[in-house]
Design goal:
Length: about 700
């Protein structure tokens, strides 16, 4: 057995390889680009490209690709081989600095939301040297950003990098006020916990809904679901554990710090968590992780489902975005330390996050909005669609004390900078656990729990970073002008807590009473993608995002349209798949079972004068359900036809929400009922019990 320490990162052109293959001068110059973003000289790029190519060929690679993250939500790649013809009819392997730093894919087939007409098809991919190149399946992958000919971002990486830069700029201003002059950069880190389902490949292949849409569109609850709570952290089945071991190995080779794995709440549901990394690298790694998860599953006769709600009635899958801010000098700005009340700097950053989340609830909500994730948010399993912050009792009490200028705790004697009497000691675990909060403080980081399992983490982090950058800017503007820094700081924290404490909620987010309470507090509750996505174009959001250079106004409007189009298309494909399955599979199967049962009655009656009560009742019930399914299918067909007549995407999305989704539910109900009455051998595809317990 190879040792993990030996093969970890073996497919990555990382610092180790750079040092070994580049001259000291070239290495230093590349490092400057990586660490400080200084532009890379083309002569240096040429040397780096040649070294990358030689290393990749040594590892068996024949091709290279610029790897990017267009707005489709999945990654894109176009492979070119290294071959170049030589005069003698043979080939040599070449890769230039120009090919490394810039690519020109035809951008017209990627969603741009009207940013780019087809006649201006050119798009550019530009090397992101802060994320290492790697080899996968015989190809050298170069992480890149993707933009249009005129420089508009067409991907998720460009705005993510811009948002990190914005936060860096504003955080440095604030740190300077506290006398932190040695800090040169501030970065956010993310550790995304990834949930997923595994199902048997042969069963999967029999279900059009899973194939076409990634989720089951029909299916009655099995006799056993997750009510026994025996799956969470349960012992892992051999087949699954072999899959997980294989997955770890593949991820480790790619330098991905896969760390934790366990069974999740629902049957067939699992989780993988890596060790956290700088946000843009975490985003790249999470995209790669999702790809590798699917690939490795094939080798094990499995399919990995990353849809947010593959099965109705059991938990869906999310992704928890553990997020922190830290300095290049190694200080986590969200770490309270032993005595957070002393730590005015911590309290200021905490206040900034609280205000940011309150001011930009809508942006955070829409950053995770997809048709798939709408099934989770607000259902009784995931955080609600309402954004709130969990702080835990201790921090909440400290903030209350600050707000009221009251002493915190009973034995407090010291008078601190903030003018609050405080306890001399602070307990180690500053927070208890709360699983229902969408945005929970967990000791030295925030865990944003609303992300869907298939979401790119980029969107959530773009908006989170941007919102926090904006508040830090407001704070810095104020404090830089202050005559008495300590007093202004105290007043600012106090006022921020007072103005934004409505967003803090330590109770049970799944409780119905919270919905009412949140409404009273004036918090927004945007239930669907159609409701929240248009808010990105609200004046306050456009102003904020453009002022920090995260997006241009055109980019914002284009993103709204792309996300809404995606929502409309996803639901429309689901509706069409339902029609297809109902007409060609479910109705005929149930009808056949029903007519076979009816013929049995005739046979039985010809033999003796039995009443055939069972058969009669069954046939009557099934016939009614068949009629109901038929009518519901026809109704859904006309709703689908109706969508084609609407051309504005905003109206389309409202139509999908108000007409199409309800029509789909109307068809599903009788079909699921019929499934429970139909003999197993007649049913055309594997049912929930087989899918959920079949691995
Ligand atoms: P949980 O108990 O919430 O399920 P896990 O161990 O599954 O915790 O995941 C926690 C995640 O948080 C991991 O990815 C971990 O690396 C990440 N994490 C830990 N500390 C930080 C930090 N300071 N900043 C960002 N992420 C962090
Ligand atoms: Mg976890």
């Amino acid at each position: 057995m190879e040792k993990v320490t030996e093969y970890f990162g073996s497919m990555v052109f990382d610092e180790r390889v750079m040092k070994a293959t580049l001259s000291e001068k070239v290495y230093k110059s590349l490092k400057r680009t990586i660490d400080r973003g200084t532009p890379l000289d083309i002569s240096v790029a040429n040397v780096v490209a040649a070294a990358m190519k030689d290393w990749a060929i040594e590892k068996g690679a024949t091709h290279y690709t610029h790897w990017f993250q267009p707005m489709t939500g999945v990654t894109a790649e176009k492979h070119d081989s290294f071959i170049t013809p030589a005069p003698d009819g043979r080939v040599i392997m070449e890769f230039s600095g120009k090919e490394l730093v810039k690519g020109e894919p035809d951008a017209s087939s990627f969603p741009s939301g009207g940013l780019r007409a087809t006649f201006e098809a050119r798009g550019y991919t530009a090397w992101d040297p802060t994320s290492y190149a790697f080899i996968k399946d015989g190809t050298l992958y170069i992480p890149t950003a993707f933009c249009s000919y005129t420089g508009e971002a067409l991907d998720k990486k460009v705005p993510l990098l811009r948002s990190m830069e914005a936060l860096n700029r504003q955080a440095l201003r604030v740190l300077k006020l506290f006398g932190n002059d040695s800090v040169r950069s501030v970065r956010t880190s993310v550790g995304p916990e990834q949930e997923y389902f595994l199902v048997d490949r042969e069963m999967y292949k029999k279900r059009k809904d899973l194939i076409m849409t990634g989720r089951t569109l029909f299916g009655a609850m099995p006799p056993k679901g997750q009510e026994m709570e025996d799956h969470y952290f349960g012992s892992i089945k051999t087949r699954v554990s072999e899959y997980m071991a294989d997955l770890d190995k593949e991820l480790w080779k790619l330098g991905i710090l896969a760390k934790t794995k366990h069974n999740e709440v629902a049957p067939a549901q699992h989780e993988l968590a890596p060790i956290y990394k700088t946000t843009n690298i975490a985003a790249d790694h999470n995209q790669l992780t999702m790809e590798v998860m699917k690939k490795v599953a094939e080798r094990h006769g499995l399919v990995c489902l990353l849809h947010e709600k593959p099965f109705e009635g059991v938990n869906g899958s999310g992704k928890h975005n553990n997020w922190s801010i830290s300095t290049d000098t190694g200080v986590n700005l969200l770490s309270p330390g032993e005595t957070p009340y002393e730590n005015a700097q911590f309290l200021l950053f905490l206040a900034a996050v609280i205000k940011a989340v309150d001011d930009y609830q809508d942006l955070l909500r829409l950053s995770v909005a997809t048709a798939g994730n709408d099934h989770r948010l607000g259902a009784n399993e995931a955080p609600p669609a309402i954004i709130s912050i969990f702080l835990g009792d201790e921090l909440t009490a400290i903030l209350e004390a600050i707000e009221k200028d009251a002493p915190y705790g009973g034995t407090a004697k010291e008078k601190m900078k903030l003018g609050v009497d405080v306890l001399p000691q602070f307990s180690k675990d500053t927070t208890d656990r709360n699983r229902t909060s969408p945005f929970a403080f967990t000791g030295n980081k925030f865990e944003f729990r609303m992300l869907g399992s298939s979401n790119s983490i980029s969107c959530a982090n773009i908006h989170l970073n941007a919102a926090v950058a904006e508040v830090l800017k407001q704070f810095a503007d104020k404090l830089e002008k202050a005559k008495d820094f300590n007093k202004s700081l105290h007043d600012l924290i106090k006022k921020t807590i007072k103005d934004h404490k409505r967003i803090i909620f330590n109770g049970n987010g799944y409780d119905d009473s919270w919905v009412k309470e949140a409404e009273k507090r004036g918090l927004s509750n945007l239930k669907t993608t159609a409701d929240c996505m248009p808010k990105i174009c609200d004046k306050k959001n456009v102003e904020m995002l453009t002022s920090h250079g995260i997006f241009t106004e055109a980019e914002i409007f284009s993103r709204r349209d792309i996300m809404l189009e995606n929502y409309v298309k996803s639901v429309n494909i689901e509706a069409s798949t339902m029609i297809d399955m109902a007409r060609k599979e479910i109705i005929p199967a149930v009808a056949k079972f029903s007519s076979d049962t009816a013929s049995a009655v005739a046979v039985k009656k010809s033999v003796s004068k039995v009443a055939c009560k069972y058969e009669t009742r069954l046939v009557t019930e099934l016939s009614a359900l068949i009629d109901e399914m038929d009518a519901a299918t026809s109704a859904l067909e006309s709703v689908v036809a109706g969508l084609k007549k609407i051309d504005d995407v905003m109206k389309q999305s409202a139509y999908v929400r108000d007409k199409m989704i309800p029509a789909m539910e109307k068809l599903r109900a009788p079909a699921d009922k019929a499934e429970t009455l139909t003999a197993e051998e007649y049913y055309p595809f594997p049912t929930y019990d087989k899918l959920l317990f079949g691995v």
